[in-house]
Amino acid sequence: MSNIFYDHLIILTEVETEIKNVTESPEEKEELWNLVDEIIHHRILGLILDALPREHHEEFLIRFHQAPHDERHLKYLNEKTEKDIEEVIREEIKMLEKEILEQIRK
To answer: Organism's domain of life (predicted)?
Structure first.
């Protein structure tokens, strides 16, 4: 899992507990975490692009691909979206955690 600028906003304590409970091997655990990581990444990038005016998409994606870990992306997004993007991401993570837990528990 690579370091992404929004990683500090992702707290999945319940998902972590549930994954520990349902997996039998380290390989299964790693596979589930890789799926969770991929889901989160796609959801958060989609959320960001939905909030970001279209004329800034290319610039943001270039900046992101050059330095995915750079937390200055948050300031950039706050300015361009005129929203508290950290709070928007936190709320999305809460909803996503519920969805992931439902899927794991099925």
So the answer is: Bacteria
What does pTM read for this prediction? 0.88
Q: Residue holding tokens 């993007």?
A: 85
**In three state form, how does the secondary structure of 52-82 look?**
CCHHHHHHHHHHHHHCCCCCHHHHHHHHHHC
Taking only the tens place, the pLDDT of each residue in 50-92 is: 999 999 999 999 999 999 999 999 999 999 999 999 999 999 9
pLDDT tens for each residue of 34-43: 999 999 999 9
Q: How far apart are CA 67 and CA 41, in angstroms?
A: 15
Domain definitions of the chain by residue range: 7-105
Contact between 101 and 20 under an 8 Å Cβ cutoff? The reply is: no
